[in-house]
Specification:
Number of helices: 4
Distance between the termini: 56 Å
Largest sheet: 2 strands, antiparallel
Radius of gyration: 15 Å
Strand order of the largest sheet: 1-2
Structural class: mainly alpha
Oligomer: single chain
Helix content: 40-55%
Order of helices and strands: HHHEEH
């Protein structure tokens, strides 16, 4: 059996965690539902499937999400945190450029 790819670094894991939180926050905002699965967010990510599953479990462990019957949902604090991340990341894309109407 071939050797598995190198384990993700702490920075890779942090970036994956934040990407997943932002995708889930966006997912809710677009009306796709309040509950998520790793498979549902995979089309929006360029991450390894196992890492995504691990990050969902880590989000449960730190109280950002709760798990029920194989799906995940934000806790109240988790949703606030994801919203902050989303705004920080995408605010610059929401403003008009020179000569553009706001």
């Amino acid at each position: 059996m071939s050797q598995l790819a190198e384990a993700p670094s702490a920075l890779d894991r942090l970036q994956a965690r934040e990407e997943i939180m932002q995708i889930c926050y966006w997912y809710q905002g677009e009306g796709f539902g309040e509950r998520f699965t790793p498979a549902a967010v995979m089309p929006f990510l360029t991450l390894d499937r196992r890492l995504v599953a691990e990050m969902f479990q880590a989000l449960v462990a730190d109280g950002t999400m709760e798990q029920s019957f194989g799906t995940y949902a934000f806790t109240a604090g988790g949703k606030r945190g994801a919203g902050r991340l989303f705004v920080e990341t995408f605010t610059e894309f929401q403003t008009g450029t020179h000569g553009e109407c706001t």
